[in-house]
Amino acid sequence: MLYGSQETQNKRSPVRGRRSRERRTMTGIGLLLTAAVLSSYTQLPAEANSWWSLALNPIQRPEMYIIGAQPLCSQLTGLSPGQRKLCQLYQDHMVYIGEGAKTGIKECQHQFKQRRWNCSTVDNTSVFGRVMQIGSRETAFTYAVSAAGVVNAISRACREGELSTCGCSRTPRPKDLPRDWLWGGCGDNVEYGYRFAKEFVDAREREKNYPRGSEEQARTLMNLQNNEAGRRAVYKLADMACKCHGVSGSCSLKTCWLQLADFRKVGEHLKEKYDSAAAMRLNRKNKLELVNSRFNTPTEEDLVYIDQSPDYCLRNETTGSLGTIGRLCNKTSEGMDGCELMCCGRGYDQFKTVQVERCHCKFHWCCFVKCKKCTEIVDQYVCK
Ligand SMILES: *[C@@H]1O[C@H](CO)[C@@H](O)[C@H](O)[C@H]1NC(C)=O
Ligand SMILES: *[C@@H]1O[C@H](CO)[C@@H](O)[C@H](O)[C@H]1NC(C)=O
Ligand SMILES: *[C@@H]1O[C@H](CO)[C@@H](O)[C@H](O)[C@H]1NC(C)=O
Ligand SMILES: *[C@@H]1O[C@H](CO)[C@@H](O)[C@H](O)[C@H]1NC(C)=O
């Protein structure tokens, strides 16, 4: 049995990191990245070619990543020069980065399924299409949730022994853990996941060298802030899990370890951050500052944006908005999924559709459930 802990934990700040072998490795990467920036840098349009595409080009053959199969890194689309270097050094991580990005995108689609912009992917090269060229709230969420996906996937992969450079979490025993409980087990390595994701995901932004005060520089700062907020969400929500031992469930002995939260929780947390995201602009010192100084200054856990969102009502090739024509809406809801808001006042068409559901389910000894199929005619509403 697993118990979620009510107690707050003494997790250390991820930023301080650890003085371990891993840390030295990461410093090495830093140097490598710098080298990559100096050697070759081609400017790409905003998101035309992003590491997100790893989510869509599933890397199906992990065995290709064993050292020696280097050509693979040059075949992967969407990597920046620094990310390509990281790929070469950490080939076994790439599958999990792809998985993490996919988890993030799926969560984004879940959180936004009833909204005009529904996080739908467009094609396998640009993933989200031109919409990401706008520094909007939606873009902020997308960066955060995909960075979070990578932390999640890498942390778990460490724990499962899939990566050569990390293993179980080495988070020190929380101070408030009752004395007779054991701290051990193999925890998700959130520290490593955090640090690797920072190197990999941020590489792309750190390679850029835009003129001071430019719109592109503001966007780079925005992306970095939102990547960080995403990573911290995973770190913050990871909690202690415990297992009982002892005579017939007496729970006289417990073993506890650090465990990632369900990714849905991360999605919900970031959705709240999306709702409270702060509008920013570049100031004279080349830092982002609040547009409206009456609001609270965002912390590193908060999302920020620099552009107003388009209304996403109509298809627009320039902004990449897909529009809401043909989207399902809810006739009785007054929220974003309601026909009024979803269809942007254009009205809707009503359809009758047949829905097949499992029903009259019966439990049979032992052990299966048998159901009947019931059909029901339901009304559906679709935006004009
Ligand atoms: C997109 O993916 C499809 C099938 O997965 C592939 O045939 C096509 O070449 C890809 N397009 C690009 C531009 O990579
Ligand atoms: C698309 O969006 C841009 C920017 O908001 C706007 O200037 C343009 O008129 C739009 N085009 C269409 C066809 O609606
Ligand atoms: C998301 O929106 C697009 C464009 O409006 C639509 O084609 C797609 O089916 C939608 N996806 C879902 C899951 O509703
Ligand atoms: C439509 O919205 C109403 C009110 O929010 C809700 O009770 C109902 O379950 C929704 N219907 C569907 C099909 O989602």
Automatic annotation (TrEMBL):
Q: Where in the cell is it found?
A: Secreted, Extracellular space, Extracellular matrix
| UniProt cross-references to InterPro entries, sorted A to Z | Wnt (IPR005817), Wnt_C (IPR043158), Wnt_CS (IPR018161)
TM region(s), chain numbering: none
Q: What are the recorded Gene Ontology BP terms?
A: canonical Wnt signaling pathway; cell fate commitment; neuron differentiation
Query: What does the UniProt keyword field contain?
Result: Developmental protein, Disulfide bond, Extracellular matrix, Glycoprotein, Lipoprotein, Secreted, Wnt signaling pathway
Q: Where is this region: Disordered?
A: 1-22
For this protein, the record's CDD domains field holds: Wnt_Wnt5b (cd19348)
> What SMART domains does the database record attribute to this sequence?
WNT1 (SM00097)
A GO CC annotation recorded here is: extracellular space
Write out the GO MF terms. cytokine activity; frizzled binding
Q: Where in the sequence does UniProt note compositional bias of the Basic residues kind?
A: 13-22
Pfam families associated with the record: wnt
Top-level division of the source organism's lineage:
Eukaryota
Q: Does the keyword Acetylation apply?
A: no
What does this protein's UniProt record list under function?
Ligand for members of the frizzled family of seven transmembrane receptors.
PANTHER family reported for this sequence: PROTEIN WNT-5B, WNT RELATED
The record's similarity note reads:
Belongs to the Wnt family.
Please state what the protein is called: Protein Wnt
Name the source organism.
Geotrypetes seraphini
Query: The organism's lineage?
Result: Eukaryota, Metazoa, Chordata, Craniata, Vertebrata
